[in-house]
Amino acid sequence: MKFILLGLLFFVYDAEAQVNIIPQPASVIMLKTMGYFSLNPATKIVLEGSGMDNSVSFFNDYLKQFYGFTLQTTSKANGNNNIFLNYERLDDSIPGAYHLAVDKKGVHIEGDNETGVFYGIQTLIQLLPLPSDTKTLSIPDVQIEDRPRFAYRGLMLDVGRHFMPVSFVKRFIDYLALHKMNYFHWHLTEDQGWRIEIKKYPLLTQVGAWRSGTVIGKRPWKGSDNQRYGGFYTQDQIRDVVAYASARYITIIPEIEMPGHGSAAIAAYPWLSCFPDEKTNIPDSILSDDGKKANGKIVYEKWGVAEDVFCAGKDSVFQFLQDVIDEVVLLFPSKYIHVGGDECPKTNWKRCPLCQKRIHDLGLKDEHELQSYFIQRMEKYINSKGKTLIGWDEILEGGLAPNAVVMSWRGEKGGIEAAKQQHTVIMTPTTYVYFDYGQSRHDDSLTIGGFIPLEKVYKYEPIPAELPVDDGRYILGGQANIWTEYMPWPSKVEYMMFPRVTALSEVLWSPKSARNWDDFQQRLPFELKRYDLWGTHYFHDWAKP
Ligand code: ACM
Ligand code: ZN
């Protein structure tokens, strides 16, 4: 430990008014000395250990972009102008703790492993003044001790409804890092588009990544825009994004939806459906011209849930999904693989002879048990690859797969039920963290509806009060979901996520006792200035939504 010990000479006083760190650290102490460290282009980064290159690169990239210079690294301090980085294997149960101390001679960051150093750097970034004419950056004397509250601090981005370019996906990952979040749930397949290249099934992207039009407006739909729309990520691009995230201590969880939300895959390979010869069911009044001409299946052009789902009666469907998983696990080092499992209409299964035969042969009670069979069969396969399955809370219906992690989205009850069954849970309830819902009362832009203002996000508590105290440990953390039906481009995604991500980051990182809405509102305006610096779009009227 390299803390500068302070005598009783100085009074310690409340820090909040002086620094604006989000998420709020576990402890911030400022000294009445009112001293500063002056960071300038001659400042050296002293590496007291190895493995901190990611932190140095991130910091130098940030300095370069916004202040126009970078710092050199060295293994030995010289003079009184240094930033010391080191780590110790404290092995806190949740990775990421760090200490940060500033005095006029230097900055000391000590992390619990490299991850902690990286979060210390994120805090240092928030101690920098906004850019001005000078290249001397004054950082106030401060002592911070910090550690994450939850192990899972996530954001989900839906690139199925609207495709987001790699450049934005990387920017999104940077936003996660800057907020000390550590999971990016990448929703890669949808009814309206399949976005991940699978070498064994090229039509998934040749056909499934493109739709001939998109419905206009909200229900009742106002017709089709008739624009061919789509995009996908090559496996090379995915590897590049995974490496980018990993250098920011962010795990990417890929989601491959099954058995529902598979209509784009079915357009590519109609035999995945119970009824390969039936046309995709979209009314003519909202169908694109090319859609009207098509004889068979098409990629879905409207919002909502398609009834054409993967057939649970054909072994070939499971073989297909296993083949897809084979390629997915080679691309994503994550121990978690998300298989969706939500919103699977049972209409086709009810009239499909093969699905009904499966129900009969296995002695299942109904189509819900068939869905459970589907997920459990895929879980066995995913477990055989050394991975853990995550599903939306519908996977509780008909019996939970033995090792599954549950994402509770239809409120908190699925999460409560799963935790009581001693399953790991990630909380993502529509009631608090659906960032596709409006954040204004006044319908300031076209959204899917709902109203989740900043304060509501801030006041979210991921461990449900109803849960028996002992079961709270099954709550791994939480995540906000960004469904993109009404977010056709990155600036709209940013507008919907900010500043709500700021509130979420504090919910997931800061100690519960440090959470204070009044105090957060004091710190937020400075954070918004950082957004301005970054060129980030955000909702301005958060105080009077
Ligand atoms: C979901 O919002 N359908 C998980
Ligand atoms: Zn079937």
Put the structure in a nutshell.
This protein is 32% helix and 18% strand. It is built from 17 helices and 22 strands.
Which sequence of strands runs across the widest sheet?
Answer: 1-2-10-7-8-6-4-5
Structural class per helix/strand content? alpha/beta
Identify the bound ligands. Answer: acetamide, zinc ion
Helix fraction? 25-40%
CA distance, first residue to last residue: 46 Å
CATH superfamily of the largest domain: Glycosidases
Radius of gyration from the alpha-carbon trace, in angstroms: 25 Å
Mean pLDDT: 95
Protein model, in words:
The model is unreliable at 1-17 (pLDDT under 50). The chain has 17 helices and 22 strands. The longest helix is centred in the last third of the chain and has 18 residues, at 367-384. The protein has an eight-stranded mixed β-sheet with strand order 1-2-10-7-8-6-4-5, with helices on one face. It starts with 11 loop residues before the first strand and ends in an 11-residue tail after the last helix. The chain is α/β, with parallel strands linked by helices and 545 residues long. It has helices at residues 53-67, 113-127, 166-178, 203-206, 235-246, 263-268, 289-293, 315-331, 347-351, 353-362, 367-384, 413-420, 430-433, 454-458, 490-497, 500-509, 517-534, and strands spanning 12-13, 27-31, 36-39, 44-47, 72-74, 82-88, 98-103, 106-112, 137-140, 142-146, 152-158, 183-187, 189-190, 193-194, 210-211, 229-230, 251-258, 336-340, 388-392, 405-408, 425-427, 475-482. The protein folds into two domains: 16-146, Chitobiase/beta-hexosaminidase domain 2-like (Chitobiase, domain 2), CATH 3.30.379.10; 163-515, Alpha-Beta Barrel (TIM Barrel). The protein is elongated. Helix 12 links the parallel strand 20 and strand 21 (425-427). Acetamide is lined by residues 342-343, 392, 409.
